[in-house]
Amino acid sequence: MSSKNILRRGLSGVAAAGAIMAAAIVSTPTMAQQPEQYFPVASMRVGPYNAMGTGIFGGVIDYLNYVNIKHGGVNGVKLVYEECETEYNAARSVECYQRLLNRGDQKMLLWDPYGTPLAYAVIGRVAADNVVLAQAGYGRTDAADGRVWPWVFGATANYWSQIAMKLNFIQQKEGGIDKMKGKTIVHLHIDTAYGREPLPAMRQIAKDWGVNLIEIPIAPPGLEQQSQWLQIRQAKADWVTFWGAGAGMSGTAITSAARVGFPRNKIIFVTFGGAEEDMIAGGAQAKDTHVVAMVLPGKQFPLIADIEKVLYSGGAGKGNMQNPARVGTIYYNRGVIAAVNYVEALRNAQRIHNKVGKPVTGAEFRDGYEALDYTSEARRKELGIDGMIPPYKLTCRNHEGAGTFHMMQWDGNKFQIVSKDWLGANDPKFIRQLIEDSAEKYAKENNITLRDCPN
Amino acid sequence: MPDIWFFIEVLVGGLLSGIMYSLVALGFVLIYKASSVFNFAQGAMVFFAVLTFVGVMELGLPFWAALPVAIGVMVLVGMATERFVLRPLVSQSEDTLLMATIGLSFVIEGVAQLAWGVDVRNLDLGIRDEPINWVMDKTGMLISQLDITAGIVASVMVASLALLFSRTKVGRGLRAVADDHTAALSIGIPLKHIWMLVWATAGVVALVAGMLWGARSGVQFALVWVALKALPVLIIGGFTSVPGVIVAGLLVGASEKVVEVYIGPKFGGGVEVWFPYVLAVLFLLVRPEGLFGEKIIRRV
Questions:
Q1: What fold does the segment set A160-293 form as a domain?
Q2: 3-state class of A363 per DSSP?
Q3: Structure pTM?
Q4: Cross-chain Cβ contact A234/B6 below 8 Å
Q5: Of the partner residues B113, B217, B261, the one whose CB lies closest to the CB of residue A248
Q6: d(CA B110, CA A405)
């Protein structure tokens, strides 16, 4: 072929491609475009918390995609997302927040960074940005008071309720509150704001019950805990409430407990660092360790089974999990439930503001989030999550939700539920009072007028 | 249990923890001796090595077959590092080499997770990380079998490496390379072979350290941070001394545990994180080259 022919063919090819592109550009405005609602995903797939991050945010993304594939979005509104890597680093998470705040013509509605220090980093600005801070079971506890924190939600619980539930479980095991006097409980925690978060409630309950409370910090990453466990042994602790993060810290806690002969069934792990990955890191010594759950693991729930069917079965290849075997694990299910909250809030917002089938604004989404209601068994069954979370609803005043959990125990291969029902504080009103006292104090110090809440 | 036995338990536990720090520090010393560079990628190598080991076992190989495979992979990593990272940088400044190892650490971390995934694994070495019964019965002290094993393994490795450096041609070549790359090259010492061997050996040391740390903490990403534990050990022991890091590891391990248990509670705990660095700074003031490091004499 001569060079002229080659040139002619090349030019005609370029011209044809140009014509197709021009036609596509011209035709775009006339095509019916599906409305979209944008969600940011502040993931942590890199670093020591990657097991948690890949599970939780894999669950979030899978549910958003599942709603699009299975239901065509929320009333026809397609769910889109953009990911940013925080590495569980507060400074980096603020960068991500800023970067994801706007996407095209849409503004971010919600921020769910899955880390207490990360939630604290932006809690002061979300109201001004009209962004819901969804700290599902983590974050600043007294933000459960919706009068002071209208833009912050804890659904389904917070850390004060969780520590109160742990102490309630312990007193039940010990035979009653009167048997708790003189008992020694060690709160072994990561030396961060997250590790110290439950202490105000814990100190108060320990004082009321006559419990000897010892607080021992572990500096992250916590791969050496011999000193801490020797102190626990020296103190002849009866129970340890472990408040760690990252599989390395969790695994080391378990093996270090074994090294000093501390029984694992007297250790209660926190939700945040209590998953299959944390137990696997501890190996055979993890058997009998107690772990608190606010979302139950397993594929027996219809929603999880259907997500697996739609996104993974038969090599569908539409799922976000690199290892599909992790579908149904603690972190994955927690991520799915977080996204169920997003979607339910969006559905509520569309309904409340007469925008069914249309994208909503941050303020409208906030109203939708505050209207989250899982008290109807029929609705929980419709969503396929009955039994996976406790029944609860949020209100103007109560941004926490259920405040209840299940206690699980690791049998060496998987978790077994050992609590008969969802369990909360021995005295939930006392915890609520602590929360509201703390929030009111904050409001007073910062000249915040309490929102008038009818309920 | 009498207080004195508890003190001895803390002390012995600290010494045995120190051995684990020394094992990680050994990898740094090997590289520093050959390349005069602080190998930023050593923590990543620990993670990669043990992740490869458990990954190969997951593919169906038994323990004793997986071990040589993992060693082989670490030797290949060492060879690749020499070929693609170090060789192009011969005669460059130490700062350049340091930056190269920082880049290398990201590459190794990424490749490790790309190849084997991010799942947390457990590593069962068949050695119980639980107290030895007869010691407990006789004294009431709780000494872990894994700690004792780590001590024996570290001793064997140090003895082997000491022999390698002092009694072999390679060792003499290594010492020459450590003094001056260019001068060593000019008298015919095969720099690339020395570097390849040393990086491969550091990879094997990383594998051993990773296996012991992984057995205790699980095989997961945080293992890259065990390098933090080695830094004060290196400063105290000297970056070029194999026996130095062993002695320094014991010193750091024992002192940090005693300080944490007996003084830590007065400061709200968490003392052992910064105490080794305070100790290291004190050593820097008195003996900048470390306990057994080579004294640097510069004529002006």
A1: Rossmann fold (3.40.50)
A2: helix
A3: 0.88
A4: yes
A5: B217
A6: 37
